[in-house]
Amino acid sequence: MAGTRKERVLTEVTIRLAGPTDFTDLRRAVVELQEHERRLSSTRLPGDQIADAYLAWLQQQAHVNGAVLIVEVGGIFAGFVVGWVVEDDNIAETVDSNRAGYISDICVMPPYRGQRIAFDLLSAIERYLAPTGITRVRLGALAANAPARAAYERAGFEPYEIIYEKRVGKR
Hints:
The chain is α+β, with helices and mostly antiparallel strands.
């Protein structure tokens, strides 16, 4: 149907490693992402409550074998992605499954959604992690986050494992 999808803006899109001067933008995006997920699930705490500690944790995780990447559109912060290599020891899994890239968070700020920015970020973090020798990249999404899941599938991701939840004492 014509006109239902935003056309890609022909403005310069830059993806780069995050630096110390990006803290304010990253914090704002973490709050945005958390509040978005809070609208989808009652399990999420308020964004302002967790933003500083969560951002510090993300940067610590990415520091070892990963990255925090920033996307700018026309020089304006438009979002971020964080990923790193995870090494598990699941005896039932193959070696290449036990050592995989993991995308923990991705956020495209509201004015930039629908312009394939998420695709660009996912591609960039995949390229960043590829030289580590991984052959798989994984990410998770809330089941209720249909737009995110659709974006991931458009980027070539397929469902791998599904986690079910049941609240005890509720029918």
